[in-house]
Amino acid sequence: MLFLFVTVIIFNLIAYLIPKRISPMVLLATTLFAMYLQLITDVYLGLKYHL
Q: 45 near 51, Cβ under 8 Å?
């Protein structure tokens, strides 16, 4: 379990420190698409399968 926490922290630090060359518009579009897909999935699974 300790290995899991250490690995997650290290990977998050690496992802945060790597220089990003993504424009703010692409970042916004990707985030909105992910939120929309998550919402549709939750509604579908909640209504159809009662999860």
A: yes
